[in-house]
Amino acid sequence: MKTSPTFLLVPLLFAMAWAQCPAPADLKTANGTKICAQLYTKNSPYYDQCCAGSVLVVPPDEDQPYMPSAFNNKVTSLVVGQRCELTVWSSKGKGGKTRKFKAGAFPRLQEIRKGIFGDWANAISAYYCKCS
């Protein structure tokens, strides 16, 4: 049976699409301590250029009802570590809409719906991150 070249390119293109965002398993500090999540302030229409800009490193069990001002309503990409879950809110004080992100890379939050008319890009104002 002959394999078409297009079939072989699909896994390669998929791997390249996530090139800029770190893998969930790679979220560790320099000394090997687990990181629950990383939030980023810049993304791009091109997946390989997402997860850029300023980075907010979120340790396990961090509970922030008020985002640091440099990140409040400015997060456009995020990565959640293995065996972790990031819960976010759209309003300060853990108000408004909420969503849970399981382990994985989310390079374009504008593709994640927040209700009927919105998305999660530039919409995170509070978070809680936990790991098992």
UniProtKB/TrEMBL annotation:
One of its GO terms (cellular component) is zymogen granule membrane. Keywords: Cytoplasmic vesicle, Disulfide bond, Exocytosis, Membrane, Signal. The keyword Membrane applies. This is Syncollin. Residues 1-19 form the signal peptide. GO terms for biological process: exocytosis. InterPro entries: Syncollin. Its main location: other. It is a peripheral membrane protein. It is found in: Zymogen granule lumen; Zymogen granule membrane. Functions in exocytosis in pancreatic acinar cells regulating the fusion of zymogen granules with each other. May have a pore-forming activity on membranes and regulate exocytosis in other exocrine tissues. Pfam families: Syncollin. The keyword Acetylation does not apply. It comes from Podarcis muralis. It comes from the Eukaryota.
